[in-house]
Every structure is written in structure tokens, then in C-alpha cells.
């Protein structure tokens, strides 16, 4: 039975796993879920995933729901190249694990909340952007980006070394959430982080651009509706 992958490409970790599956030629049955239409709130979906979130895997009846766990699982199950998730180099594994734990309340939280406050909530509520909340989350992002630069990357090409890992993929997909709402200057202003993001994109293309196509389209849509939401473009 084919691996089933449930995802919405507007979700950052959904994109990361989608790109990962494609880049490693792992065969899967795509199961797109439109969160904006509430498809994750049905009883049928809840029977598969009680958390009613994406992404998640159904591997012949084995359900796995957390993106970090999914990436580890796939790396080990398919015996993928060590650079993705080192199994035999404890130091590299520990550095990647460090980022995977750190990112939840840093890269992921801050970038996701800027996107949510500038687009998701105003559209859902038919209201103006709460600029004070946007500014609060934006204020944390330069610190996050600086930590990626000075601590996680330092003089390396990628987090953990000279080759791309699951940490890089998750990190870049989270920061890409700023692109649709015209906040990419937050990471482009840092030369090392900018170069790292471009390196990851080039290393994983054409799958990176395929996975992020919806991000690029959303930017064009936001260009038209942003002013009506009270956005500062």
C-alpha cells in the first residue's frame, strides 16, 4: 500500500515534508487538505487524525502526525543519506536536534504569527490588520534571524555542516511564510541567512519551487488585497 501524505501547502511544515518526499524520490499518494475550507474539521478527518491538523502520514495504517517526527521517520525508514538526519554522527545529529527543538518557539512561532496577523485573521474575520500585534511578532524576528546566523550557521553552509538537512528545510520553509505578506526584508537584510536560503532553494529545486508555488501565488494575491486590509506594503 502506498504511503499516504495529508497536507496543505499553505502550511509551512506541510511544504517541508512535500519537498523532502519529492527530493528523495519517495513514492506517496498525495492527500491534499484545504484548511481554508475546513476539510480538517470533518468527522472523517478526525478519525484519521484526532488533532485535526496537517501534515500527517498514513503508512499502511500507521499514523504519524508531527512534522519533525515524520522527517526523522522517513529518514530512517528509507535509509536516506546521512546528511538529511545523521544517524551515525552524534555531534551533527545533536546540532540538528537542537535546531528542531528551538525552532518551535522561535522561527516557526514568530514568522507564522506575522503571516497569520497580516493575512489569515483579517480575511477570516473580514477585519483590518491589528498592526500592534504584527509589530510585536515582527520585533522578535530579527533576533531569531540573528541566532540562525551567528549560532546555527556560523561559518557553515547549512545547519550542522556542509550539506542540507531536515533542519535547513524546516527553517527555510518557516521563513518563506513571510514572503507572501511582503516581509522578506526581515531575512534578506542578513547576508548570511539570505545566502543560506538561496542555497537551500537551489539545492532542492525544482521541488522547492513546486512546493512553494502557492506561496508565490499568495504574494501576488496579497499585493491586490493587502491595502484593503490595512497592510503596510
TrEMBL record:
<dbReference type="InterPro" id="IPR051369">
    <property type="entry name" value="GST_Theta"/>
</dbReference>
<keyword id="KW-0963">Cytoplasm</keyword>
<comment type="similarity">
    <text>Belongs to the GST superfamily. Theta family.</text>
</comment>
<dbReference type="InterPro" id="IPR040075">
    <property type="entry name" value="GST_N_Theta"/>
</dbReference>
<feature type="domain" description="GST N-terminal">
    <location>
        <begin position="1"/>
        <end position="82"/>
    </location>
</feature>
<dbReference type="InterPro" id="IPR036282">
    <property type="entry name" value="Glutathione-S-Trfase_C_sf"/>
</dbReference>
<dbReference type="InterPro" id="IPR004046">
    <property type="entry name" value="GST_C"/>
</dbReference>
<dbReference type="Pfam" id="PF02798">
    <property type="entry name" value="GST_N"/>
</dbReference>
<dbReference type="InterPro" id="IPR004045">
    <property type="entry name" value="Glutathione_S-Trfase_N"/>
</dbReference>
<dbReference type="InterPro" id="IPR040077">
    <property type="entry name" value="GST_C_Theta"/>
</dbReference>
<dbReference type="InterPro" id="IPR040079">
    <property type="entry name" value="Glutathione_S-Trfase"/>
</dbReference>
<feature type="domain" description="GST C-terminal">
    <location>
        <begin position="89"/>
        <end position="225"/>
    </location>
</feature>
<dbReference type="InterPro" id="IPR036249">
    <property type="entry name" value="Thioredoxin-like_sf"/>
</dbReference>
<dbReference type="Pfam" id="PF00043">
    <property type="entry name" value="GST_C"/>
</dbReference>
<dbReference type="InterPro" id="IPR010987">
    <property type="entry name" value="Glutathione-S-Trfase_C-like"/>
</dbReference>
<protein>
    <submittedName>
        <fullName>GSTT1-like protein</fullName>
    </submittedName>
</protein>
Amino acid at each position: 500500500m502506498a504511503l499516504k501524505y495529508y497536507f496543505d501547502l499553505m502550511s509551512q511544515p506541510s511544504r517541508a515534508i512535500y519537498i523532502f518526499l519529492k527530493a528523495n524520490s519517495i513514492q506517496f499518494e498525495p492527500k491534499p487538505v484545504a484548511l481554508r475550507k475546513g476539510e480538517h474539521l470533518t468527522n472523517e478527518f478526525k478519525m484519521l487524525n484526532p488533532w485535526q491538523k496537517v501534515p500527517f502520514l498514513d503508512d499502511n495504517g500507521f499514523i504519524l502526525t508531527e512534522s519533525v517526527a515524520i522527517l526523522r521517520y522517513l529518514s530512517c525508514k528509507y535509509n536516506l543519506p546521512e546528511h538529511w538526519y545523521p544517524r551515525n554522527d552524534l555531534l551533527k545529529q545533536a546540532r540538528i536536534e537542537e535546531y528542531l527543538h528551538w525552532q518551535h518557539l522561535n522561527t516557526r512561532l514568530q514568522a507564522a504569527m506575522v503571516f497569520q496577523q497580516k493575512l489569515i485573521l483579517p480575511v477570516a474575520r473580514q477585519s483590518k490588520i491589528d498592526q500592534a500585534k504584527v509589530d510585536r511578532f515582527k520585533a522578535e524576528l530579527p533576533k531569531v534571524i540573528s541566532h540562525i546566523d551567528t549560532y546555527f550557521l556560523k561559518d557553515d553552509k547549512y545547519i550542522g555542516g556542509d550539506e542540507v538537512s531536515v533542519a535547513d528545510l524546516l527553517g527555510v520553509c518557516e521563513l518563506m511564510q513571510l514572503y507572501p505578506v511582503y516581509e522578506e526584508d526581515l531575512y534578506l537584510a542578513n547576508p548570511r541567512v539570505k545566502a543560506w536560503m538561496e542555497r537551500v532553494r537551489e539545492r532542492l529545486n525544482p521541488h522547492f519551487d513546486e512546493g512553494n508555488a502557492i506561496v508565490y501565488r499568495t504574494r501576488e494575491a496579497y499585493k491586490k488585497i493587502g491595502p484593503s486590509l490595512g497592510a503596510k506594503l
